[in-house]
UniProtKB/TrEMBL annotation:
This is Calmodulin-lysine N-methyltransferase. SUPFAM superfamilies: S-adenosyl-L-methionine-dependent methyltransferases. Transmembrane segments: none annotated. Residues 31-50 are annotated as: Disordered. Pfam families: Methyltransf_16 (PF10294). It is found in: Cytoplasm; Nucleus. It comes from the Eukaryota. The lineage of its organism: Eukaryota, Metazoa, Ecdysozoa, Arthropoda, Hexapoda. GO terms for cellular component: cytoplasm; nucleus.
Length: 349
């Protein structure tokens, strides 16, 4: 057996270990799954759902909920497993909105540096972690999927920010779970006029990569990146945290996937968000995942708005894709959640 074959078998063995992990119960579903499509709990007619401490009811049985979660978990862990195998083939017919064009940066020696182009006007140099053999330890945990690709929710949040740059002027902004690109925070720092932007992720590899992207661009404000693990904040001893209630805006894209991290994310948002601040979160429904998140937000004390149509480019792309095979609104279309600590509307946001 050649060295290449031995390496391939070792990687496959690591991959199989992850995919069959009993701790996540990824394979506790039958072969005739229906992709976890669930009925929407909210009426979508108005495009905006406002909440005043009223918890959404969750329909369906506990078995149906578990069925939906395991299907969605299997889908994303399949993508992670592909990364572990160093497999660049595309299984899913839909993976992103393709509203971000990118090419390798010809003026950079590093082949992993790309120029991202958004809305024909905005340019950003981003370093991607690139094609590399992933280890099992690098992919385990809730804070890894941002290292694999750019998700539709990241595209959506970036486009929303670019359409509302004025609301961020002279504010402090925190991005949570930004992955290997921290796209939302970087695009805001380059083209908006905030006072300070802090982009974070729970994965050291992501933050190391983002730090390299920061050196590739000129920004309009102070920007820094650091490792922030949500489970390490939000407890009683953080009442005197140096960044407590510092941020007028908090950004987060597609960070609701893993149940075990959802409450930690909510605690982190509550800790860092200013009393008059707004958290902007983009995520698809994924069965009951979004509803569970909103229920936990209400239990924490948040008010929220849930928006379906919040950006013309994203909405038009959604209407185009909904007619195509492979596009599932339940798992692919990001909704926008605005979270407040107070019960009021901010029209400018």
């Amino acid at each position: 057996m050649s060295a290449a074959d031995r390496r391939s078998n070792l990687i496959k063995s690591q991959c199989d270990t992850i995919v069959s992990g009993s701790a996540i119960d990824l394979l506790a579903i039958t072969s005739d799954d229906d992709d976890g499509r669930q009925e929407h709990e909210e009426d979508q007619g108005s495009g905006v759902i406002k909440n005043s401490y009223h918890t959404l009811s969750v329909s369906g049985t506990r078995n149906e909920d578990h069925h939906s979660k395991t299907i969605n978990a299997r889908r994303r862990w399949k993508l992670l497993a592909k990364a572990l195998r160093h497999d660049s083939s595309e299984d899913d017919q839909f993976s992103k909105f393709n509203l971000i064009e990118f090419d390798r940066a010809g003026d950079e020696k590093d082949e992993n540096i790309f120029v991202y182009r958004l809305a024909d006007r905005y340019r950003l140099k981003i370093r991607l972690i690139g094609e590399r053999p992933w280890t099992a330890s690098e992919l385990m945990g809730f804070n890894n999927t941002g290292n694999i690709c750019v998700w539709p929710s990241e595209e959506a949040l970036a486009y929303f920010i670019l359409s509302r740059l004025n609301i961020f002027e002279n504010t402090n902004v925190l991005e949570l779970g930004g992955g290997m690109t921290c796209l939302a925070g970087l695009i805001l720092a380059k083209y908006g006029l905030p006072s300070f932007v802090h982009v974070t992720d729970g994965n050291e590899l992501s933050v190391e990569n983002v730090r390299k992207s920061l050196n590739l661009n000129k920004f309009n404000c102070t920007i820094k990146t650091s490792v922030l693990k949500w489970e390490s904040v939000g407890s009683d001893h953080d009442a005197n945290h140096p960044e407590r209630a510092r941020y007028q805006f908090i950004l987060s894209a597609d960070c609701l996937f893993f149940d075990e991290s959802r409450s930690h994310l909510i605690d982190a948002i509550w800790l860092f968000l200013a009393d008059d601040g707004i958290a902007l979160v983009t995520a698809p429904r994924r069965g009951h995942t979004l509803t569970h998140f909103l229920n936990e937000c209400v239990a924490k004390g948040f008010y929220y708005e849930l928006l379906h149509c919040y950006n013309e480019a994203i909405w038009n792309k959604h209407l185009e894709l909904i007619k195509t095979e492979g596009y599932d609104e339940n798992i692919h279309y990001p909704l926008l959640i605005k979270m407040y600590k107070k019960d009021y509307d901010l029209d400018h946001a």
